[in-house]
Amino acid sequence: MSKVRILWLYDDLLDLYGDWANLLALTKGLDAMGAAWEIDHKSLGDPADLSEYQMVYIGPGKARNLEEAAKDFIGRKEEILAAVERDTVFLVTGNSRLLFGKSFTGPSGETIPGIGLFDYTGEETGNVFISDVLASPVFAPETMSYGFINRTAHIHGNDRDPLFTVAKGAGDGETEGETHEGNLYRNFFGTWQLGPLLVKNPVILKELLRRLVGEDFCDWNTTAEELALKLTLNEISK
Question: CA 128, CA 144: separation in Å to the nearest integer?
Fold first, then answer.
């Protein structure tokens, strides 16, 4: 198996809620499979050839930090879109999803362009919204996952390529009873859900790794993680 190269974009700006542990879970899984890996860190103005990476990770950040990152990110638009279309794996959590829509309104009131991978638009409201979420990923509808939403922004018009079917909690809006949350397009995984998502949900972790390493994927024991998830689901379902 060749070395897996992961690009962590804007790690100095977009790294809230311990969501970097998604990468910890990924690399632990790669270790369990005997795969070599490397994580590169790139931020504002840093050159990055995305063809050299099998995965890109962008985490959540403060609203003003996201606004700063967005002005750099738009300059990478064509390379990012090309990477998505050639099936590079992306994991995008929290408000960094705003970078991939048509545009969003930042905390200063400025309308900031996104790269347009999806048709939605975003808005920074300044109002904190939180929700536990129980949902089934579309690639494993017989399973249930857990995530936690904590945001001050929301998106409008996310009408295609959902990642989750919501059983309890909010979806992409702010009301109970919404059907869908997140986006899964090719190998792009985007979600509001924190947790970190991959630490709490071994089914999602393994699906992402299957897509990352292909035929080199081999399963490993996640009994402890599965038990922890079961206990969480039981508690939240009460």
Answer: 26
- Number of helical (H) and strand (E) elements in the chain, helices listed first: 6, 12
pTM over 0.90: yes
Percent of the chain with pLDDT over 90: 89
- Identify whether the C-beta of residue 221 lies closer than 8 Å to the C-beta of residue 213: no
pLDDT attached to residue 9: 99
Separation between Cα atoms, residue 157 and residue 138, nearest integer Å: 19
- What residue has token string 């071994």? 202
For residue 171, give the nearest of 184, 187, 158, 161 by alpha carbon. 158
| Mean pLDDT along residues 34-47 | 98
pLDDT at 171: 87
* Domain membership of residue 10 as a residue range: 4-236
**51 C-beta neighbours (distance < 10 Å), count:** 10
Residue that has been written with the tokens 């899964």 in this structure: 184
Measured at the alpha carbon of residue 147, what is the angle toward residues 117 and 206, in degrees to the nearest 5? 75
Helices (H), 38-76: 63-73
pLDDT of residue 200: 96
How much is the average pLDDT of 68-97? Answer: 98
70: left (phi over 0), alpha (psi -120 to 50) or beta: alpha
The pLDDT value given to residue 176: 66
Residue 71 CB contacts under 8 Å (≥ 6 apart), including other chains: 112
* Counted domains in the chain: 1
CATH at residue 210: 3.40.50.880
Length of the chain: 238
